[in-house]
Amino acid sequence: MKKYTMETSVGIFVLIGLLCVAYLTIKLGRLDVFGADTYLLKARFSSVGGLRPGGSVEMAGVKVGSITRIYLDQETYMAMVDMQIERRIKLSEDTIASIKTSGLIGDKYVALSPGGLDESLAEGDIITETESALDIESLISKYAFGDVGGSKEEK
Question: Residue 105: is it exposed, middle or buried by C-beta count within 10 angstroms (0-12/13-18/19+)?
Answer without folding.
Answer: exposed
